Amino acid sequence: MMAAAEEDGVTAPTAMNEQHQSQYDELCGGYIQAQVMAHEEAVALSEGFSTEGEESALRNFATETLPMLQMHRMFSK
Predict the structure, then answer these.
(1) Is 53 domain-assigned?
(2) Could you tell me which of 25, 61, 21, 22 has the C-alpha nearest to residue 45?
């Protein structure tokens, strides 16, 4: 699109207008908040299942993946 605008002698904007920037910021904030909550829930479920779940392949999976989930939770904040 930039090449077509240049060919037609039109100067394309280099940034979003205020309305679109505001919408983008709102969307990003909501996404980040949702990711933090999702990681909190995943860690809580895995912690509980790895300590209180019946001995099984799923319990082993929860125990093995818990450190990775905790790291992802830390990065999501």
Answers:
(1) yes
(2) 61
